[in-house]
Write a structure and sequence with these properties.
This is Type 1 glutamine amidotransferase domain-containing protein. By secondary structure, this protein is an alpha/beta fold. The protein is about 30% helix and about 15% strand. It has a single domain (about 5-230), classed as Rossmann fold (3-Layer(aba) Sandwich), CATH 3.40.50. The longest helix is centred in the N-terminal third of the chain and has 13 residues, at about 30-40.
Length: about 230
């Protein structure tokens, strides 16, 4: 399988919570931190979402203190970079053969459109079954919950993973707003879930070609693990 030196990044199309008035969307740093590492390593990236088009961004991820973390503010100031988020590809139109890896970003919006997207489930399964790297961070693993492989088995069954913990959900005051407990749902699919001892601590889990990160602080570590795995061939 020839390398393409391209990575597909998946983001949400949802901009609000179903039950409350909070606005949500992509957590911008989970895109930029990954992008910085992968770009430095020589990879090109495309961005896709369930609906395509303009990508909603979680307003809390645009707070000055958050933007300052890990250089996100430099990407936010870059009009060319941000303009790319006005024209995301539509997942249904994406061909997995054109990429070496897939990366599912977080932000609470993904909890509402990732799990029940048949197009995303098929795309992730295509990547995995083609021997490519599948990765996700924070709430992004919600997009792995209902992925079934060709033999009907769940992708997550028997896998070591992480994702946004319920403790972290309560600390950011979203326990009553989210549609499910991601930590519990990952385990209910047969996955072995682990998390950092401290909330919001960096935690990345690699299980073969499946790489997951717990929270926004883990996005850079996920990127480093993805690049390492790709370079190992």
């Amino acid at each position: 399988m020839a390398a393409t030196n391209k990575i597909l990044i998946i983001v949400t199309s949802v901009d609000e919570y179903a039950k409350v008035g909070y606005r949500t969307g992509l957590w911008l740093g989970e895109l930029t931190h990954f992008y910085d590492v992968a770009e430095e390593a020589g990879y090109q990236m495309d961005v896709a979402s369930p609906l395509g088009g303009k990508v909603p961004i979680d307003p809390e991820s645009l707070a000055q203190a958050v933007l300052a973390m890990g250089g996100t503010i430099e990407r936010y100031k870059d009009r060319t970079f941000m303009d790319r988020l006005d024209q995301a590809l539509k997942i249904a139109d994406v061909d997995a053969s054109k990429y070496d890896a897939i990366y599912l970003t977080g932000g609470h919006g993904v909890m509402f459109d990732f799990p029940d997207s048949p197009e995303l489930q098929k795309l992730v399964a295509d990547f995995h079954q083609a021997g490519k790297v599948v990765s996700a961070v924070c709430h992004g693993p919600a997009g792995l919950l209902n992925v079934k492989l060709a033999d009907g088995s769940p992708l997550l069954d028997g896998k070591n993973v992480t994702g946004f913990s319920w403790n972290e959900e309560t600390k950011v005051d979203r326990a009553d707003a989210v549609p499910f407990n991601l930590e519990e749902e990952l385990q209910s699919r047969g996955a072995s879930y682990t998390k950092a001892w401290l909330a919001m601590g960096n935690h990345v889990v690699t299980d073969g070609r499946l790489i997951t990160g717990q929270n926004p602080t883990s996005a850079r570590g996920v990127a480093q693990a993805v690049v390492k795995k790709l370079q190992e061939g």
